[in-house]
Each structure stands twice: as C-alpha cells, then as structure tokens.
C-alpha cells in the first residue's frame, strides 16, 4: 500500500511540474508569437510616478513625442515634445511637473487645433440675405 502512495505522489508532482513548465513556456512565447498585439507605431519611452496612481508618460507615436499625464479618472495631454527636445530637457520638465501635488495643477497645453465646426444657422442667415 505504501508503494502505491509513493508512486502516486511522485507521478502527481511530476505532472504538476510539467504543467507549470508548459505554462511558463506559453507565457514566454505567447506575447511574441503570431498573435502579438504589440505596435511598432506606439511606444512608451519613459514613465515616472508622481503620486500613487498618478503618472507622467513620454509617448512616441511614429516620429512624434508627447508628454501625457495619467490619473485614475483621466488622461491629459500636457505637451507635444519637439524632436529637438533633448533627454535632459525632458528630464527637467518632468522634474518640474513632479513638484506639483496634483495632475489638476499641471499646465494644460492644447497642442492640436480644434476643428472648426460649421455654423449652420449663420450660413442659413447669410444665404437668406443674399
């Protein structure tokens, strides 16, 4: 009876070890395989924690770089970084941002033009007056 219990224990431990080994191999190669969703267009260059669950990110999208603040509730575009912006200038900007106590206190810079919405009522009045 004791021999059966030892054999059962050994084979069970061997199977559990084999399952864990297969799981480790799967985790290692699953992200890099054919089903990978990694993008070569978007990448996070740097991240810094400024408070619990508040981060600053330097994101590269193609040839452009952006400084983005991330909070639990929202994500805010702080600035579009020039290609001429050096690593030291980026670090200085991040250090200055680090001294603020909240992401709400960070400067909000609108780097993109807002599209002009057509004023339908204005256009109708202009057509009527012609």
Verbal overview:
The chain is an alpha+beta fold and 130 residues long. It folds into 2 domains: 1-36; 42-105, no CATH class. It is 39% helix and 25% strand. It contains 3 helices and 4 strands. The protein has helices at residues 2-30, 87-98, 120-129, and strands at residues 42-51, 54-61, 64-70, 75-81. Strands 1-2-3-4 form a 4-stranded antiparallel β-sheet, covered by helices on one side. β3 and β4 form a beta hairpin. The protein is elongated. It starts with a helix and ends with a helix. The model has no long low-confidence stretch (mean pLDDT 76).
Radius of gyration: 27 Å
Number of strands: 4
Which stretches are poorly predicted, pLDDT < 50 over at least 5 residues? none
Strand order of the largest sheet: 1-2-3-4
- Distance between the ends: 105 Å
Q: What is the arithmetic mean of pLDDT?
A: 76
Determine the structural class based on helices, strands and strand pairing. alpha+beta
Number of domains: 2
Number of helices: 3
Brief synopsis:
The protein is an alpha+beta fold. It has 2 domains: about 35 residues; about 60 residues, no CATH class. Helices cover about 40% and strands about 25% of the residues.
Record keyword descriptors for this entry:
4-stranded antiparallel β-sheet, 4 strands, 2 domains, 130 residues
List the topology elements:
Blueprint: H1 2-30, E1 42-51, E2 54-61, E3 64-70, E4 75-81, H2 87-98, H3 120-129
Antiparallel strand pairs: 1-2, 2-3, 3-4
């Amino acid at each position: 009876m004791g021999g059966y219990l030892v054999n059962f224990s050994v084979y069970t431990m061997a199977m559990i070890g084999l399952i864990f080994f297969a799981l480790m191999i799967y985790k290692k190669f699953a992200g890099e395989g054919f089903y990978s969703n990694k993008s070569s267009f978007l990448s996070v260059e740097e991240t810094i924690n400024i408070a619990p669950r508040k981060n600053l990110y330097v994101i590269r999208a193609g040839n452009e770089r952006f400084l983005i603040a991330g909070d639990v509730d929202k994500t805010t575009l702080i600035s579009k970084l020039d290609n001429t912006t050096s690593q030291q200038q980026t670090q200085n900007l991040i250090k200055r941002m680090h001294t603020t106590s909240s992401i709400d206190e960070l400067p909000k810079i609108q780097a993109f033009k807002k599209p002009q919405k057509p004023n339908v009522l204005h256009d109708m009045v202009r057509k009527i007056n012609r």
